From TrEMBL:
It comes from the Bacteria. SUPFAM superfamilies: Glyceraldehyde-3-phosphate dehydrogenase-like, C-terminal domain, NAD(P)-binding Rossmann-fold domains. This is Oxidoreductase. Pfam families: GFO_IDH_MocA, GFO_IDH_MocA_C3. Residues 2-122 form the Gfo/Idh/MocA-like oxidoreductase N-terminal domain. One of its GO terms (molecular function) is nucleotide binding. Residues 143-251 form the GFO/IDH/MocA-like oxidoreductase domain. InterPro entries: Gfo/Idh/MocA-like_OxRdtase_N, GFO_IDH_MocA-like_dom, NAD(P)-bd_dom_sf.
């Protein structure tokens, strides 16, 4: 049984804990928050677990605890690298929410620390682990030579009205290494890399907010024989599916972030639903993958390479669009 600690007390942490416990390969051993009262409030729903999780408001005490094997990090993006490195240097395995780090340099340092300490570092990117994403991946050769792909994720942020009202929520604050491409745009970019690898060229444009981060944008990735267009936004909604166009047909995927539905349309034929039933919590599949890496005590080299490529592309996209973070200094 993997003894799991969590850093961060928000809804996504709850979702990962639910997924981890469902796999029956983890026990929740510790909860960290910067304030003990927040940790206590968050832990209320888990006090019936046996044993109940220990609570921490000191990161070093958490890192040095001998009752923890692995740590799930869901802190603000700007703290991912710092927290992960501290945990890994203490011998803890880490699964860190996407994006892995604020920039490529920090992501590379994180993997170097993981290797130096013989621990697993995993980016919590759920999309490629879902069954319907795997169907998409396996079906791409069946639509003929790929010529165009369009991957979209646009969702009006619940925190955007606060930003418009003059507040400064983390979501739109460069101090926290945030913005559209670093948040939901990540799913578009990382999905493209998961499917097609490193592009030959990248061209990006974005609509910057006065705070200095991007509210929305688009990216064109060039591959041999085809291009992938990414559309992302936290200031508007889209109801379009992602589409992959081959010379003989096309594949449509609804909500590529969670692999909601996958269908195939061959030329002259009716649309065919290829979807399979998935767990309602899509994080179950990444939790299973992380557990497998820990059992084997070996990082997944494909996932590592994907994370590094995505971190490099995110850094280049921000360079092209003028989004700067304090961590870039």
């Amino acid at each position: 049984m993997i003894r799991l600690a969590v850093i961060g007390t928000n809804w996504i942490t709850d979702q990962f804990i639910e997924a981890a416990l469902f796999t029956q390969q983890y026990q929740l051993s510790a909860i960290y928050s910067r304030s003990m009262s927040s940790a206590e409030d968050f832990a209320q729903k888990y006090q019936t677990l046996t044993p109940s999780p220990r609570l921490f408001d000191d990161l070093e005490q958490l890192a040095q605890s001998d009752s923890i094997d692995a740590v799930y990090i869901a802190s603000p993006n700007s703290l991912h690298a710092q927290y992960a490195i501290q945990m890994m240097q203490a011998g803890k395995h880490v699964i860190c929410e996407k994006p892995l780090a604020a920039n490529a340099r920090l992501a590379e340092e994180m993997f170097a620390v993981a290797e130096q300490n013989n621990v697993v570092l995993c980016e919590a990117f759920m999309s490629p682990h879902t069954p319907n994403f795997k169907i998409l991946q396996s079906q791409l050769p069946n639509i003929g030579a790929l010529r165009k792909a369009f991957i979209t994720y646009c969702q009006y942020s619940s925190r955007y009205p606060k930003y418009l009202a003059g507040e400064n929520p983390n979501t739109f604050n460069p101090q926290f290494a945030n913005g559209s491409i670093m948040d939901i745009g990540f799913y578009c970019l990382a999905s493209a890399v998961a499917l097609f690898g490193r592009p030959e060229k990248v061209y990006a444009q974005a609509q910057l907010l006065p705070s200095g981060v991007d509210g929305s944008g688009s990216v064109v990735l060039t591959y041999p024989g085809f291009e992938v267009v990414l559309q992302h936004s936290k200031t508007s909604d889209s109801f379009l599916s992602s589409e992959f166009q081959g010379e003989e047909g096309a594949l449509h995927m609804q909500m590529i972030s969670v692999g909601k539905k996958i269908s195939k349309i061959m030329r002259g034929q009716a649309e065919e639903d290829l979807s399979v039933e998935q767990h309602s919590n899509p994080m179950v599949y990444e939790a299973l993958d992380f557990a497998e890496q820990l059992v084997n005590n070996k990082m997944n080299p494909v996932a590592k390479e994907r994370s590094l490529i995505v971190a490099q592309l995110l850094t280049e996209i921000r360079r092209q669009t003028g989004v700067k973070f304090p961590q870039d200094q």
